[in-house]
Amino acid sequence: MAVPFLSVAQMREWENRTWAAGVKEEEVIARVGKALADLINNVTEPGVRILILAGKGHNGDDARAAIPHIVNREVSCLNVVDPAVALRQIDSMLDSPPDVLVDGLFGIGLSRPLSEDWCRLIERINGLGSYVIAVDLPSGLHPDTGDNFGAVIRADTTLTVGAPKIGFLRKSAWPFVGKLEVAQDVGLIPCPFASETYLITRDDIRGIPPRRVSATHKGNYGHLAIIAGSRGYHGAAVLAAQGAQRAQPGLITVFTQENVYVPIAAQLRSAMVQPLVPTEFEIRDFTGVLIGPGLAARDISPAVISLVRRIWRDADVPVIVDASALDWLVSEPVPSKAVRVVTPHPGEAARMLRATVDYVLGDRVAALREISSKYGGTWVVLKGYLSLIGRASGPIYVSNRGNPHLAQGGAGDVLAGYISGLLAQPRLQQRVEEVLRFAVWQHGAAADHLTQIATNWTIEELVEVIGQIRPR
After folding, report:
1. Which domains, and CATH codes, for the chain?
2. Residue 459: pLDDT band by 50, 70, 90 thresholds?
3. I need a surface site. Which of 4, 143, 189, 370 has the fewest CB within 10 A?
């Protein structure tokens, strides 16, 4: 099940209820240590040198508990009580800093500003150039607000314990958290708290798409219309169509500007391609519509913009809007049971709200709900670090899959196409929330898979992989 983002007070209450149920703290610490070791073994190569910095609290106990389970690595542990002493010890290693550093200095119990010595130690750690894995949260980060206590360990990966902390959703925390992972099964009793925000787990995306039965044909899987592409931006239409193909709807037709018809049609084979004539476009032949990828040229006609607004307002099939077309939407009612999805990045979200990017990033949950309310209760996929999925009311889901190598032109086009290819299928149109969780997770997981192979992968390779990553 999805894992709630929790406050420190909720984490403490969860722990106390666990101890009251008869679970021993030592048992949980041992399981956290095993989970940490498993992560270290998975993300590092045999033979690397690992330095564990263990504080005097339970965060340090968790880090020390990993040592027996780390295999074929050179592991040393520095128990840190006095930061000035630890700084001298680390200085002595500067000629040969560790490949990996495990941050077990402070956990959620830190509640006061750090001394100058602690700040200097953290700054020196951040300057080592080691790959940093933080236990529960980066030391010095406020788990509720995402602010800091004077200095913060800059982690490449954070293995948070039990549940992610609400402060991780704040922009101020992002440079320090890095890749967020959760040690979920550590012996705590089932989480007693609900939340507004939930991290997507593998269990949440199982069963999408459902297995196909034998006696079906392409007519059973829908017909997606894609309105995309313009002069200078024809590749976006191609990538969106290819992303949609990976979702395997029955048919795909791309409608594009006549001046880019030839290059788009030349790159697509199973997808049909037609010049877009706004006055002739009819919804009746389609079970889903994607609008926006590559519709960025200045010569987009008012008739196209009017068509986009008409489809958004009137269509009774799922409509997904991305990229430049987001700017053309107007705040007006849509059919009560209609499926509407928008997929903005923070800059596009800011334009939709007539606000600034800082406004959106200052509280992305509130911004998502505001967009949804403004545009008829639409589903919103707010892209970025820890992408959000939700609408004006109800839970908001957070994906921790993906990495900075997705910051390439075309990544969003592939995602929009993949979402649309799924939602065009009639059997999935009553499962919108599940589809969106799966698609965003799948998109990020495909990027993570490619990055394990090589960091210089391209968006064309993302198209080849999306849809193939299966939860284990």
Report:
1. 3-193 (3.40.50.10260), 218-465 (3.40.1190.20)
2. very high
3. 189
